[in-house]
Amino acid sequence: MSENESSASSNFIRKIIAGDLQQNLNEGRVHTRFPPEPNGYLHIGHAKSICLNFGLAKEYDGLCNLRFDDTNPEKEETEFVESIKQDVHWLGFDWQDREYYASDYFEQLYQFAVELIKKDKAYVDSLNADEIREYRGTLTQPGKESPHRNRSVDENLLMFKDMRAGKIEEGECVLRAKIDMSSPNINMRDPIIYRVRKAAHHRTGDSWCIYPMYDFTHCLSDAIESITHSVCTLEFEDHRALYDWVIDNLETPSRPRQYEFARLNLDYTVLSKRKLIELVKDKYVSGWDDPRMLTIAGIRRRGYTPAAIRDFCDRIGVTKSDTRIDMSVLENSLREDLDKSAPRVMAVLKPLKVVIENYPEDSEEELDAANHPQKPEMGTRKVPFSRTIFIEQDDFMEDAPKKFFRLAPGKEVRLRYAYFITCQEVIKDEQTGEIKELRCSYDPATRGGNAPDGRKVKGTLHWVSEKHALKSEVRLYDRLYTEANPEEGGRDSKEFLNPASIEILKDARVEPFLQNAKAEDRFQFERLGYFVADKEDWSPQSPVFNRAVTLRDTWGKLNKK
RNA sequence: UGGGGUGUAGCCAAGCUGGUUAAGGCACGGGGUUUUGAUCCCCGGAUUCCCAGGUUCGAGUCCUGGCACCCCAGCCA
User: Fold this and answer.
1) How far is CA A141 from CA A138, A178, A185, A255, in A?
2) Cβ contact A322 with chain B strand, < 7 A
3) Which helix (H) or strand (E) holds A122?
4) Which chain A residues in 435-474 sit with Cβ < 7 A of strand B?
5) Are residues A258 and A315 in the same domain?
6) What is the extent of the structural domain holding A158?
7) pLDDT (tens digit, 9 = 90+) per residue, A393-443?
8) Which pTM value belongs to this model?
9) How many Å apart are CA A197 and CA A210, to the nearest integer?
10) CA A86, CA A109: separation in Å to the nearest integer?
11) Is A263 a catalytic residue?
């Protein structure tokens, strides 16, 4: 990670830590963890948590563990742990040898449960799922105690052992903490801490048929790993009482504390795991790494950089108010990063043929182009020029408004790094009226783009030589949804999928310099945006570029009005 | 009608124990530079901090009472 990245602004968690450090709590240690469940791919919301947790550890000279919260064998898969590890690394964070799994603690967790039973603070309940729900009460009515709540410690011990031994079927029994069925906090109404699941686990296989629940597992995993600050999202706020209850009622090796912050919401997308899984499973997108997805894998393939994502996470802040961030913040972080680093290059997305009539028929030449006009140290390259070139269709208008600086009949523009040309004639299809090509003249004295007589030209166009250009596929991406908040009001977000979220251009042309690009190389296509050689589909024989983000476009904005 | 949270410009977000002109970013508008209508550089915005009362010489910061929004009734995490 580069050192000059702006250090994140102050937030309430930093203040808590600073206060703890002042009181020398936890022997002055700061130890956090990032605890994903391996049941899907990581997304930009996880990036916020990753940056926070690893960032806190780094800032306070502490440690951050990677811990897989894998207590539900039915949803978790090895594929997901691999992708998660890859994504965290790609984002620029390292957990060194501290790669942990809640499933590694199953035996310890079991012993903790036994300890709770022995203290008469947990019991085996034989109510079925429906009954437990009924007994739980509602938001406004207290629950009722289970008839099995007062089983003896010995009986509970025996039954719990039977659960572990596989003698009890799924749904027959659960282990519950004995807390308070009338608590206004529903989490405290004798929460289930163990259930029977006769399912193979991605790591422990068939060695267990009972699995601990999140509320029991998470706090104890934190305690086992000596986590000092256990940072999670707001929906767990109500669970903190239970977190503390478990820790307080057991002899744990350490005393972690839970703090909650607001999860990330972004306009024009969804970030709930359920929704993302649905998009993938029902093939609304091409996969977890579809460039329209806000998964880490997706935005990576889209062309985002780890630095841009980290910068974004710094900018949005960490608070407890639930908010929606404007997409432009994310886009701006990428533009800012790529503006500094991406080599500039010319590409024509929707080609319009231009014949320069007074340019010698069989002649061609190479012009010098800067790889980054603001950074001479990035060098120059040669761009081939010839009598027939392509320009962007959008750069020509037959009836141009006054403010249109580009090419129009009789108008003169500059071809970047080449010559001034003037449009002499428009050739159209006689049937359809479609513009087929332009006949232009050039001024040989303007080679390189400057007129010796000092005459100015308003517009500069990018172009590509017909016979030298590489044919390329270019994929243009736009927001996945047409509504800023597609989930608002319990609506079905699928109704708002943007039908124009992807546009595939098969006839784009790029300058030959791009022949040597490699997958994931990023470029600025001048005047168009930042593009990346597709991670999966790029090859020198058939180049494929994805548009990561457009350039700011004040002309386009003006036009929309 | 229970509990837990949150409310500072269009969107985020600083604002320590109350004290001169309420940071900063994105977006937006205006101007300058420019062989990318990009970048870069200036300049602009809250008499006001959800509302209403109150305490105080003084409140976004304290008190009281409202209002709005979010989360919680999985043997998911």
Assistant:
1) 5, 19, 11, 33
2) yes
3) strand A122-125
4) 448-450, 459-460
5) no
6) 3-265
7) 999 999 999 999 999 999 999 999 999 999 999 999 999 999 999 999 999
8) 0.96
9) 6
10) 28
11) yes
Question: A415 and A391, same structural domain?
Answer: yes
My answer on whether A128 and A54 are in the same domain is: yes
CA A469 to each of CA A354, A472, A507: distance values in angstroms, whole numbers, following the listed order: 14, 9, 11
ipTM above 0.90, yes or no: yes
pLDDT at A492: 86
Residues A285, A405, single domain; the answer is: no
- Which of A223, A245, A265 lies at the terminal end of a domain, its last residue? A265
The answer to whether A341 CB is within 7 Å of strand B is no
Taking 80 as the threshold, does the pLDDT of residue A15 lie above it?
yes
A495 CB closer than 7 A to any strand B atom: no
Give the confidence band of A559 by pLDDT, cuts at 50, 70, 90.
confident
Chain A residues 228-267, Cβ below 7 A from strand B: 234-239, 262
Distance A193 CA to B70 C1' (A): 27
A33 contact to strand B (CB, 7 A limit) = no
> Same structural domain for residues A206 and A284?
no
- Residue A69 tokens read as 């919260």
Judge if the beta carbon of A32 is closer than 7 A to nucleic acid strand B. Answer: no
A82 three-state secondary structure: helix
Select from A528, A166, A466 the least CA-distant residue to A338.
Answer: A528
Structure tokens at A505: 């251009």
The enclosing H or E element of A369 equals strand A364-370
Q: The CATH number of the domain where A493 resides is what?
A: 2.40.240.10
Q: Are residues A205 and A100 in the same domain?
A: yes
pLDDT at site A7: 45
